[in-house]
């Protein structure tokens, strides 16, 4: 009996290993298709976890300077270096017993742990004090609080989240981080206009950091990270992303801009979504964005048999490195005529 059980367990382990290896092969072959010239340079980054990175939250500095907060953390045993993005820091090593997320600085909201790629989108939003801003997919609120800090709370942010548990996380985070200009809303961003018709074309800026297939966060040495991934995920999510984008454009003021971002490589969730919006709405332009990073490249203007609008070259792709995960960013402007 024991032998039979052991044999069944052994066979199911072999099947699981085979399925995982097949998935890894499929994933890497997809990456090779997308980045044939960069593949051998980037493949290794799918096996390396990134160091912990964070930004200092200016809303909770109190009487401290950024340097003081960084020195306090260094005195607790954290080895910190400046990151490649304004106000970002890299935690390379800790002698400390504590994790960064267990420190007083983290619990008081003086620092916010955030990936470097995730800090990029807000930098392109051309934020100005007094703006009315909508964050359509907000939790846990990394980018919401980054906007609030950038504008020193002198703006109005409506931050929407449709997952109850994540909505409470968002609310808590905004409180901890002192983001007082944020009105967190437990709602579905797809149907906002139906529920609140007066919101039509009312926002100066819209941030649409969509739910995506998360390929940027896949690490192949961790079997869990590939669990939800399959070759159909991107297609399914692209439908939701288009509906969210349709809603966001309807809520955006003429002259205003919408920032679209994903942490995934799939063309279906990136260039194809933006190309679809350009065809659907005649009043959109893709604004040129760029960042001084070696791992940034223009979005694709063609993919297999598809030819996209030339303006797709104004969007950016961030390819993975030892510090960055894969990301895609597009900035759409609604014309005034
Ligand atoms: C990529 S995460 C957002 C991360 C966030 N922007 C940040 O920087 O911290 C996407 C979020 O959108 C939420 N979401 C998905 N569909 C939504 C919808 N229809 N309306 C509002 N939120 C939605 C998900 O629950 C998830 O929390």
From TrEMBL:
Pfam families registered for this protein in UniProt: Methyltr_RsmB-F
Protein's recorded name: SAM-dependent MTase RsmB/NOP-type domain-containing protein
InterPro entries (alphabetical): MeTrfase_RsmB-F_NOP2_cat, MeTrfase_RsmB-F_NOP2_dom, RCMT, SAM-dependent_MTases_sf
Source species of the chain: candidate division WWE3 bacterium RIFCSPLOWO2_01_FULL_37_15
Recorded family membership: Belongs to the class I-like SAM-binding methyltransferase superfamily. RsmB/NOP family.
Xref: Gene3D superfamilies: Sun protein, domain 3 (3.30.70.1170), Vaccinia Virus protein VP39 (3.40.50.150)
Top-level taxonomic group: Bacteria
Transmembrane segments: none
Active site per database record: 263
Residue ranges of every copy of the SAM-dependent MTase RsmB/NOP-type domain listed in the record: 42-335
Keyword DNA repair: no
Residues reported in the UniProt entry to bind S-adenosyl-L-methionine: 161, 209
Keywords: Methyltransferase, RNA-binding, S-adenosyl-L-methionine, Transferase
Example GO molecular function: RNA methyltransferase activity
GO biological process: RNA methylation
């Amino acid at each position: 009996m024991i032998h039979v059980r052991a044999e069944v367990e052994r066979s199911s382990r072999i099947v699981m290993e085979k399925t995982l290896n097949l998935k890894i092969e499929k994933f890497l072959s997809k990456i090779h298709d997308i980045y044939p010239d960069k593949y051998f340079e980037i493949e290794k980054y799918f096996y390396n976890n990134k160091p912990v990175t964070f930004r200092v939250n200016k809303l909770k500095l109190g009487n401290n300077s950024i340097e003081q907060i960084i020195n306090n953390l260094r005195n607790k045993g954290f080895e910190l270096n400046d990151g490649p993005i304004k106000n970002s820091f890299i935690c390379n090593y800790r002698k400390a017993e504590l994790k960064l997320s267990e420190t007083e600085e983290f619990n008081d909201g003086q620092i916010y742990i955030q990936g470097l790629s995730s800090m990029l989108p807000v930098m392109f939003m051309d934020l100005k004090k007094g703006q009315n801003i909508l964050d359509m997919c907000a939790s846990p609120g990394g980018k919401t609080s980054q906007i609030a800090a950038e504008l020193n709370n002198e703006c109005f942010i409506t931050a929407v989240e449709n997952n109850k548990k994540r909505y409470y996380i968002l609310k808590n985070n905004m409180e901890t981080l002192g983001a007082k200009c944020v009105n967190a809303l437990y709602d579905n961003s797809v149907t906002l206009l139906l529920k609140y018709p007066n919101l039509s074309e009312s926002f100066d800026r819209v941030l649409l950091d969509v739910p995506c297939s998360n390929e940027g966060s896949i690490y192949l040495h961790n079997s869990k990270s590939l669990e939800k991934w399959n070759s159909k995920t991107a297609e399914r999510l692209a439908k939701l992303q288009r509906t969210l984008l349709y809603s966001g454009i309807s809520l955006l003021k003429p002259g205003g801009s919408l920032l679209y971002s994903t942490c995934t490589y799939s063309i279906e969730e990136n260039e194809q979504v933006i190309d679809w919006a350009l065809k659907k709405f005649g009043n959109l332009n893709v604004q040129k964005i760029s960042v001084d990073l070696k791992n940034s490249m223009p979005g694709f203007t063609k993919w297999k048999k598809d030819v996209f609008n030339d303006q797709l070259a104004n969007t950016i792709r961030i390819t993975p490195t030892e510090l960055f995960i894969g990301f895609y960013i597009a900035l759409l402007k609604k014309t005034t005529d």
